[in-house]
Amino acid sequence: IFKFLGAISVDLGKDRIKPYLVTILTPLYRELNSNYAEQDPTLKNLSQEIIDLLKKLVGLEAFSLAFSSVQKQANQKRAMRKKQRALQTVANPDIAARRKLKRHKNKAETRKRKIDALRPMHKAKRHRGHALKDLAMVE
């Protein structure tokens, strides 16, 4: 898709690409600023190349305006999601508690995985239930 965006940009030319600049820059910016663990470095390089191409094609001033607009939109979305999450913790404490438990469980599993990677001979302790119902035979 990034190659397609670059090809369309070159094909349309300087004047006809300006109205679509924000639309084209949005996924490129998202890819550049993402911090996923399994991120493909070739995609990041490709998006940087296309951004450089657009910068040369449209000119620095128009590009800067469009890029700052994309950054502003992304920051607003991020702030809105953060605000919604904070409101949800107050409005629905049970959902927030479930999310917190899930996060703690994932953190513990990640810790176990790291320990296993560093010390392969070490075995993690298994969780044992402390209630009598865990010991009883359930039909």
Ordered list of secondary-structure elements with their pairings:
Layout: H1 2-17, H2 21-33, H3 41-58, H4 60-91, H5 93-118, H6 132-135
Helix pairs in contact: 1-3, 2-3, 2-4, 3-4, 4-5
Instruction: Kindly report the average pLDDT value.
Output: 87
Low-confidence stretches: none
- Strand content bin: under 5%
Total beta-strand segments: 0
| Element string (H = helix, E = strand) | HHHHHH
Biggest β-sheet description = none
Q: Measured on Cα atoms, how large is the radius of gyration?
A: 24 Å
Task: Work out the helicity level.
Answer: over 70%
What structural category characterises the helix and strand content?
mainly alpha
- In one word, what is the shape? elongated
Number of helices: 6
| Distance between the amino and carboxyl termini | 55 Å
Provide a brief overview of the structure.
The chain has helices at 2-17, 21-33, 41-58, 60-91, 93-118, 132-135. It is mainly α.
Question: Can you offer a commentary on this structure?
Answer:
The protein has 139 residues and is mostly helical. The longest helix is centred in the middle third of the chain and has 32 residues, at 60-91. The protein is built from 6 helices and no strands. It has a domain at 1-85. Helix content is 78%, strand content 0%. The radius of gyration is 24 Å and the shape is elongated.
Index terms:
mainly alpha, 6 helices, 139 residues, elongated, 78% helix
